[in-house]
Amino acid sequence: MQILLITNDDGIHSSGLMALKQAVEGLGRIIVIAPDRDNSAVSHSLTMDRPLKVTEIHHDTYMVNGTPTDCVALGIKKILNSKPALLLSGINAGANLGDDISYSGTVSAAIEGTMYSIPSMAISATGDPPYDFHGAGKAARMIAEKILENGLPDNTLVNMNVPPRHKQNRIKITRQGRRLWKDSIHETRDPRGWTHYWIGGGTPIHDSNRDTDVHAVREDFISITPLQLDLTNHTGVDFLKKHWDLKSVLD
Amino acid sequence: MQILLITNDDGIHSSGLMALKQAVEGLGRIIVIAPDRDNSAVSHSLTMDRPLKVTEIHHDTYMVNGTPTDCVALGIKKILNSKPALLLSGINAGANLGDDISYSGTVSAAIEGTMYSIPSMAISATGDPPYDFHGAGKAARMIAEKILENGLPDNTLVNMNVPPRHKQNRIKITRQGRRLWKDSIHETRDPRGWTHYWIGGGTPIHDSNRDTDVHAVREDFISITPLQLDLTNHTGVDFLKKHWDLKSVLD
Amino acid sequence: MQILLITNDDGIHSSGLMALKQAVEGLGRIIVIAPDRDNSAVSHSLTMDRPLKVTEIHHDTYMVNGTPTDCVALGIKKILNSKPALLLSGINAGANLGDDISYSGTVSAAIEGTMYSIPSMAISATGDPPYDFHGAGKAARMIAEKILENGLPDNTLVNMNVPPRHKQNRIKITRQGRRLWKDSIHETRDPRGWTHYWIGGGTPIHDSNRDTDVHAVREDFISITPLQLDLTNHTGVDFLKKHWDLKSVLD
Amino acid sequence: MQILLITNDDGIHSSGLMALKQAVEGLGRIIVIAPDRDNSAVSHSLTMDRPLKVTEIHHDTYMVNGTPTDCVALGIKKILNSKPALLLSGINAGANLGDDISYSGTVSAAIEGTMYSIPSMAISATGDPPYDFHGAGKAARMIAEKILENGLPDNTLVNMNVPPRHKQNRIKITRQGRRLWKDSIHETRDPRGWTHYWIGGGTPIHDSNRDTDVHAVREDFISITPLQLDLTNHTGVDFLKKHWDLKSVLD
């Protein structure tokens, strides 16, 4: 039977993970390998300064004292005997859109899976708590089936964001937009009176381009963005070759 | 006077940071904002579960108990009064090439700077310890001057890797290659006899394509790769629109 | 109704905590305030470099992202409206005997309670996994009732260790013995080949004095040791006054 | 030549450690083994969930990525070839008096040394920054010489607190007093508006008994308190035997 590997960044006890597991029941043997606690905003962190412990807490459910990326790497190289047919990461409690994708542990787990040539998808429930994990789970299953049937382009993962009020399964294939945050660093004081800075909160400045993930979700569409591993700016390669007179530098 | 912001992921006490600071002396007012300790492989992590403390340990030298990305965000939004003309991240002790770029705290700091529209470059000294930070610093200064003169394409950063034996400043503009690791998870036992897994080490499987960063460095070239913020696989957008029959899903 | 405050160092999800809660049911209103994860060997650590979050996960059950000592301090000063009649810490998975008491988060929570003049007891199930939490819970209830009836001497806590095969509730009031560890530091290597040291394991060198906690437990007795807050060696005060010629130092 | 082992809890880069090292120069071969960063309020914590790395950063100067207690245990069991004649922990930036002794990493390092039968002393500079480490160092040397000459009672360590304005080396042998803190938990909010609690600050409620460490320091005396490993309340043993009718429990 084909294996579906599930992980997340909110930790193994989170309800988004449970919802995802239930939603894809029947599509294969489901194996969960997830962090022992919240790993939000850890991005693509790998734990290299200490060893990691894998604990099988239930049948086919493994807890790791590390990051989502650690979970995927250990899962593929040490825990699973065969390559999963699909990696699902989520369901994240909150959106992963625009620039924020880069910080996301949820998306990074899917990047890690893609590096090992496993079709991978990150799923996030947008909006505010309580999140509609049930609705997001249903949508995730639909797309999971699509991926299992049709595959994904090489070195490409899917980033899916499901808004709470998506009517009639309206779906848009989008590109990653921009989303910067205003007033997202708060000042606080410790008991000795020293200033500290707490990152978070603030107001998002949304990208208004109609083909972006950010815009789709604001219009209550499910957003599906294909992301790639290659970070190269290929037109930039030509630009630098042409405009930087490296010859003169070299002499 | 224009400001050069310097950060890194090896921590504020690392010799690669010192070497970079010395190498660019005279190009502007140099302000260092760096983590208080080693943050290797933290990727683009943001610290959101606790507040951060900024300590000015010398004039224009700030230490932050957080990640490289925290340093850049705090620097731009809270510490600096005006926008830096250039952000330099490094000099990293070891290469940041191919797939490994994605885990790198050094490169992620330059990504963060680029999000704030600051021309940004990550610099790594490849090879083994002791690293040639002096040689890498000289090369970094050369390219820093190029960027200050000519700018960079929008939403684009530079990832620079300097090998120890680069002869006559041989430079190549490259694309990000692939670099996977074989046998990169070691098993060890804790004193109670439980197995733990330690990520790291192993043998790299190099990309042999001649236009890649991985290949350039193996041939003793300095590699300069323009990277972009946009992770979208744009041809993938069309692929999904065409091949996934989302209409049928929706009805 | 009188309040019983329960905490531990193995974390809020541990089965020893559950067992303790069940064992004392009916003795009062039971309020649990415990760390979100394993805090073994944290001793009397206070978290002062970051703020702490208190989450009410069920009615009268609070999770804190800190140490056992943090839990007690926050509980008494911020969460509870009135002073508990009793603080119970445990049931620890493993013994807290002899010199090891000093490292114990379980015992330290009871020390913290005693500082606030709350009658406090630490309970540990000795032996190896699976621990007999049920038996230890029964014994704990018995002694909890004694403390609620008779109180404890000022500035004094109770450290209770319950062996798995204690027959007929055999109990001994003991003093803290010595227990050092042989070969308790193991060497391991990280993936780069560097040596690291892992503390733990080893062979205990037991105190053979018959009135000690260490000895009682080896003989399958339940051990109850009254501990005090005062660390002063009072005979040492006289010794130093007499033998150190401080006058000569001062002139 | 006899070995003096120096450690602390403020970290290997702290100026209190440097001052202590300079102050005892000439008394033996000085070996420093100290934590890589601030470990204030870690108490007697042992690191058991991950291995520890020892780095020799200069001749006879070792940095450990662990607690003060880890440093002493590794030093004695793995780094040093022979038993030190004296262990000195400090100079701590701030007092370690009364109840606060129990939280102190500085004092705990001296407790650990005493467990290995090494004469051990913790030294703290009281008052506010900038601390008078020079004055405290001079006093520490004086007492270190006393200990090297006369030894210490078995299982007994010295806790020394040096106030900034101690005139004419006025010294008192004291007992551990009480020192509780009022208003020592501050509330702060994270960027999402959740309340967090920050332990620290507040106003100490001093013990006014004339023979205590707390009182001595308030009167500008150097305080020297002999502390012991044994936590047993020996009169409590008799109390419990007499007043708890354990016979009835047992039947």
Automatic annotation (TrEMBL), chains A, B, C, D:
Keyword terms, alphabetized: Cytoplasm, Hydrolase, Metal-binding, Nucleotide-binding
One MF annotation (Gene Ontology) recorded for this entry: exopolyphosphatase activity
Binding sites annotated in the UniProt record for a divalent metal cation: 9-10, 40, 92
Entry's EC annotation: 3.1.3.5
Membership in a protein family: Belongs to the SurE nucleotidase family.
Purpose of the protein: Nucleotidase that shows phosphatase activity on nucleoside 5'-monophosphates.
HAMAP family attached to this UniProt entry: SurE
Protein name: 5'-nucleotidase SurE
Gene label: surE
